[in-house]
Specification:
424 residues, mainly alpha, 3-stranded antiparallel sheet
């Protein structure tokens, strides 16, 4: 006979213990990039399994949760309210999956609540130097792959974009531990990218200036935030959606101002760019570039090694579905119908993966739609407006809205095609 005492059922644990676990779970889900609707559903569902009623309100910078013990009946409503102030989160698939696993183990009674709380807290360890190096490298690989895949740049443009992307990744990693630098990091990165590109073009070899700058900044462009904001607004999470939309627009303004400041700085020192379009890469390079982009996104989103094949498959399938949809409509792969088809396929695949693999669908959904999100269109729109090209800016802004609506519609239709079984 085993001498190990059986674990206490989660619903029998003390109220404070259950609340502490749920608050920590909500904090982790928020930190690892979960949108407001999914976070609220996930925390409420876990609370029900722990014998609690939880009214959850989430925004990009705060979470408010009111708890009541279901064993107390209606008289126990709103016994405890917790307010948690947070910074906007970033997608971390490895830690998100781990938090999901911990919640499942606690619900099933295989893990004590206190131990589950301790394991959630243990996820807060900083990235190792090896992990930081992988993230910095992912910035460079993402820039190079986008330059080759979407902008059809030359070998030299791709190489310069990769180097600048690595430099931007390094600046971004530094800003993570320096609050003053973090506030202005987007503008600084845009200024550095523009200045280095113009200086290289003027002193070494001509480049396609706009293509190199855009591809090197592609990871910072808030296309994912814009898409999430529209999804939240469409699901009636108005406060969270509008706040996220405001944050995304602020980022676009910082990036656009940084590029403008970089151009003016070079002009002040008499450095004039030689904007010249070199011969583009051959068409067959799209497929190696797509594979490089998939690997870069697996690194960027910090996916666990076991999830790399799934992430790579999601990126490839999403891009090919979008391209196929664009060809059907007789327009570019980034045409609204192509983006709609890509979003639909990825949403359905994410729900099917979550249903049968018992892991968060975010492993498929988040990296898969990164090549679909119209962040670069928004960046161009703001840049045109700052350059006083009002007509171009408005036309590009209309295209941005159209692509956002098409992508969000595709994601919603995908959930109708394959019903989600897991909130994440």
């Amino acid at each position: 006979m085993s001498n190990v005492a059986p674990l206490l059922q989660p619903t029998m644990a003390a109220l404070n213990t259950r609340i502490a676990f749920l608050v920590e779970l909500a904090r982790r889900l928020h930190k690892y990039g979960t949108s407001a609707p999914r976070l609220e559903i996930a925390v409420s569902g876990v609370a029900q399994r722990l014998g609690l009623n939880a009214e959850v309100w989430s925004s990009p910078t705060a979470i408010i949760i009111s708890f009541a013990d279901l064993a107390q009946g209606e008289e126990g409503l709103a016994q405890v309210t917790q307010v948690v102030r947070l910074s906007p989160g970033d997608v971390n698939l490895k830690k998100l999956c781990r938090a999901d696993d911990i919640a499942d183990l606690v619900i099933e009674g295989k893990l004590d609540l206190r131990e589950g709380f301790r394991q959630l807290r243990a996820l807060d360890l900083p990235d190792s130097r090896r992990e930081q190096a992988k993230i910095i490298a992912s910035y460079g690989l993402s820039a190079a792959s986008v330059a080759a895949l979407f902008l059809h740049s030359s070998w030299l443009d791709v190489l310069v974009a990769c180097v600048i992307g690595v430099l931007i990744g390094w600046i971004t990693m530094l800003s993570a531990t320096r609050p003053r630098l973090s506030v202005a990091s987007d503008a600084i990165c845009a200024l550095v990218a523009t200045s280095v590109t113009i200086a290289f073009s003027a002193l070494v070899e001509p480049l396609a200036i706009k293509s190199v700058v855009l591809s090197s900044l592609i990871v910072l462009v808030p296309g994912m935030s814009l898409t999430t904001a529209v999804r939240e607004i469409s699901s009636q999470h108005l406060v969270s959606g509008m706040a996220r939309m405001g944050g995304a627009m602020a980022t676009l303004l910082k990036l656009a101002f940084g590029t403008l400041a970089g151009s003016e700085l070079c002009a002040a020192f008499g450095i004039n760019a030689r904007d010249f379009v070199l011969p583009p890469l051959p068409g067959w390079m799209d497929y190696p570039a797509l594979l490089v982009a998939a690997v870069a996104f697996a690194m960027l989103f910090r996916a666990a090694r076991r999830d790399w094949p799934v992430v790579i498959m999601a990126v490839v399938v999403g891009y090919l579905a979008t391209r196929w949809g664009g060809e059907i409509s007789g327009r570019l792969p980034a045409a609204p119908f192509g983006v709609f088809v890509g979003g639909l396929v990825l949403s359905a695949l994410a729900n099917a993966y979550a249903r049968y693999a018992h892991r968060p669908g975010a492993v498929v959904r988040e990296p898969g739609i990164l090549l679909l999100v119209p962040g670069s269109v928004g960046f161009r729109s703001v840049s045109y407006l700052l350059e006083r090209s009002t007509e171009l800016g408005m036309d590009t802004g209309v295209l941005l809205v159209t692509l956002l609506i098409a992508l969000v519609a595709g994601l919603m239709f995908g959930e109708l095609l394959v019903a989600p079984r897991r909130s994440l």
